[in-house]
Write a structure and sequence with these properties.
Length: 361
């Protein structure tokens, strides 16, 4: 595992969180170094000494990589939000769903840095830290006049949703966090490409959001890095009719942070109320969505884990030909899953609450 000089300096300065398990491993490493070197006068000089020893061991010998490196590459707020335990943090580092990324931009004293990224063939999660000068108060009402994601300088083939990350409170009032959920229209579209998160002019909305937002800080920030990840998706052919339903589950694709289901779903038109340009209501029709949706994963140890959907995804028929009944629903998850431990998927009928468990082979 390679660490950049900047990452090492953040650890040494105490700016990176290191869990207790890592410090225990560091203590063990120091003891081993003392025993091997015969130096019995070695003393611990605070946590920075421990961190330096750990980083040195990871870089030079790789002896702590499997255990400790996963922690060094995870922001613990993100780990908590996605329910990633210690084993899953290590697993997703090893699978290259997440890894070391150094990307930031500074303007007018405000720095925006990429703290964590999770990436698979079709979905990404991005977590940014926004640090303003002390004395400038930021909040969940802080926003930007412009914000967008660019691929090799252009906005192409991306569907995303972004905003201030709610619920994560920094003790410093001049620090907030921004997150993006990203869906690519094509698999492996992002791998090896330069991704830029562009932010322009920081603004603050009023508490009731009825007045015009206040300009907090003019500026332009372009945080750029090269996206790199390994293949983690697994596809399972199912072709299973669901009893009591006209729906057939054709295949299922899972990754640590996403899921996709392909159905054979006969088309049915359902009426909806729509508004014309004049504000009048009129009745229109749209295609019915599947009644049966994925609800839980069956794990190899027999337990069930809820499938926690994120804020980004897509659903619909593959083409406009009404004779084609292939329907695909795809979504990112706000939880990470150990896909090697998944052996089945439980579907639920939203109308009857009937459940169906399909085995993944």
């Amino acid at each position: 595992m390679q660490y950049s000089e900047k990452k090492i300096m953040r650890i040494l300065k105490g700016e990176a969180d290191v869990p207790k398990e890592v410090t225990a491993r560091i203590d063990q490493t120091i003891r081993q170094i003392k025993e091997n070197s015969g130096d019995r006068n070695m003393r611990k000089r605070g946590f920075r000494c421990h961190a330096a020893a750990a980083v040195a061991v990871i870089i030079l010998f790789g002896t702590v990589t499997a255990g400790a490196a996963g922690f060094f590459l995870w922001n613990q707020d993100v780990a908590e939000m996605f329910g990633a335990d210690e084993a899953q943090q290590r697993e997703l580092v090893q699978k290259k769903v997440t890894g070391p990324v150094e990307a930031d931009a500074e303007d007018q004293g405000v720095t925006i840095s990429l703290e964590q990224s999770l990436a698979t063939e079709k979905y990404m999660y991005l977590y940014f830290k926004i640090t303003a000068p002390k004395g400038m108060k930021l909040s969940e009402r802080t926003f930007f006049e412009e914000q967008e994601l660019l691929v090799d300088g252009e906005r192409l083939k991306l569907n995303y949703s972004g905003g201030i990350q709610e619920g994560t409170k920094d003790p410093e009032e001049h620090v907030i966090y921004w997150e993006y959920f990203v869906q690519c229209s094509e698999r492996d579209y992002m791998n090896g490409k330069e991704l830029t998160a562009h932010f322009q002019n920081m603004i603050q909305f009023q508490e009731d959001r009825t007045l015009e937002p206040e300009l907090v800080q003019e500026g332009s920030w372009d945080v750029s890095w090269t996206v790199e990840y390994a293949s983690t998706e697994q596809m399972f052919e199912i072709n299973q009719p669901l009893q009591g339903s006209d729906t057939v589950v054709k295949n299922i694709v899972i990754s640590p942070i996403s899921m996709e289901v392909t159905y054979d779903l006969p088309r049915k038109k359902v009426p909806i109320q729509a508004y014309t340009e004049d504000g009048e209501t009129e009745e229109r029709f749209e295609w019915a969505e599947p009644d049966v949706i994925p609800s839980q994963y069956r794990m190899k140890d027999g337990t069930l884990e809820d499938i926690v959907t994120g804020v980004i995804g897509s659903a619909g028929y593959l083409n406009t030909d009404e004779s084609d009944t292939t329907y695909v629903t795809s979504f990112g998850c706000r939880k990470v899953y150990s896909t090697d431990e998944i052996c089945g998927v439980v579907f639920v009928n939203q109308n009857t609450n009937q459940t169906y468990e399909l085995t993944l082979r």
